[in-house]
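Problem 3 from the worked examples.
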Amino acid sequence: MPTKRCPHCITHPLEVTHYQGEEIDICRECGGLWFEKNEVNRMIAEINEGPIGDKYETHFGESLGISKLDCPDCNKNLERFHLLEDFHTEIDVCRHCDGSWIEKDQLESVENSPELKASLDKLNQKVSWKTYLFQFLTQMPVEYNLKPKQTPWVTRSLIALNAIIFALYFFNTTAFSTTLELFAMNPSKISQGEHLWSVITCVFLHGSVMHLIGNMYFLYIIGDNLEDVLGHKKFLMWYMVCGLAASFASFIVDPSSAIPSVGASGAIAGLFGMYLMWFRHASLTFMIIIYQKKLSAVWFFVIWLGINIFGMISAPDGVDYGAHIGGFIAGLIIGFALKSKIIEQNPVINLLNQPEAQLRR
């Protein structure tokens, strides 16, 4: 049998090796891999722990024409394709013998192509009359992100806990006043060493029904993805850390203030920071009067941060902007510190943040 040559290096021979249960050919010089007919599909099925349905080549994007590379088996020109319609890494395929040449840096995207395609299909959904009507009536954004792989039990539990606590005190005037007196964060009391526990308890209190609904909605749409990549315990831990950071920031802004501070918004702002660092591929809708537009997570939270900075330096309106900004900064720091680990453990998230991913907004 004649020696197969690397299509990329030309002069270097391909060596037989085993990868994911398949016997394939590898170039030891450039790391490229040659898969003969159906070997790629079997590899993808092995990695994804089950049949992948359609063959991976049925989801190729547009043909990019004849490649400069030759097939190691039949020596005919390979043809170039985008791996997916919305993921523009180039794959070289032989249309005569159905083999595939995959460069070393393309392998991860090919291995994860079924999940990558499903994720891009979800991310690139268009806004509809349903999303428009929802945001027009509620003034809440609609999120476009990956579907979590595990049930977000902590996120759901936090929402339930906040709702239960709110119901226990809000509808009774005496209970409302007593709860705020004992458990809302009052910077002037903290300065005197009193009610130190309130830096935590204030995170679970809300001043109105809309205050509660707004915070819990954002916790619902943001929390599930963060809990998915962090795990239940670490998600809860970092949520509380962000809540503490928000309380600390609120105190620093005005330690003499006697205005009680309540709400989960500071802790949730910390989740915004982490979300921004890890889920830049996500989109959230933004509405300007009656016009709805999908924005990247970056632009959405830049606008949100700008509104909070403006609110803090202008006339106060009862919103604890210092807590929001403090929580957000804490989340950014946590997100930056953990980013490499999160990306390593979640290859699809890494791929979606690459320039090859075509995100339509």
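Problem 4, a separate protein:
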Amino acid sequence: MTTPEYKEWWVRRINDNIPKISQENSQSIEEHLRVIPSELESIREDFERRNADLEKKIEQIKKENTNLRLDIDVQKHETEKLKKEKNKAEEELGSLKMDYKKLRLSMRTAGLGKTSEQWRAKIREEKNKVEEM
């Protein structure tokens, strides 16, 4: 049993628990209900972003490392080639020195290795022998 006053009060009453949309601060339902990321989620997203950046840097460093290894291989090959050429040149120099020594020895034994002064002295001797005859 309800009285007519109660029914009238019931119709006019205001339920304070129901939020009413104010025109001053009007937001759409999507904005009002959007999920605000937690601090942990923010940290995780930052970590994933940094991790992706570091992975890119690692890939770049790996490529540079590969290029440097190729450069090292080329330098080693060139070094070995130059060492072989140097050894060959040293062998040829040694051979030329031996040939030169043999030539000098054969010139001395044949008398061709005399200096110009020795030849002048030899010519004077021969002239003196001829004059004495």
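Solution to problem 4. The mean pLDDT is 85. The chain has four helices and no strands.
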